[in-house]
Predict the structure of TerB family tellurite resistance protein.
Amino acid sequence: MENKTAQLYYHIGILFYAIAMADKKVHEEEYNKLKILLRQKWLQYPDIDEKTNKDNALEIYNAFTKMLEQGTDSEECFNRYRTYFLKNKPKFTDELKALIWETGQSIATSFAKKNKSELVILAKLRILFQD
């Protein structure tokens, strides 16, 4: 990752993977939902310009895919995101947190609605955002 913006979006991708992997398996519906949301929401996110938004969405996708290929544990990924978030709170505007929350909720409900594991990780995220 060559810059701090890329690191931000990379860690958001790690979080989305943690949510999808909460039940120890990333379902095809969750993966597909992420791709749809990246196109529908993240490419429209009011960042610097269209190219930057594409780069940021790609960074999220790449992080998610890398964690999936490595079979990384959900809890480990959430903790990595949490550590990054706490060290970089000013980067997380209310608007960005709202989009992260909306995306996380959508991923969690895309396969058989939310299960207990996903509810736990979403609750941790909600607490993290409220502190």
Remarks:
- The chain has a mean pLDDT of 91.
- The chain has one domain: 4-130.
- The helical segments are 4-20, 28-40, 50-70, 74-87, 94-109, 116-130.
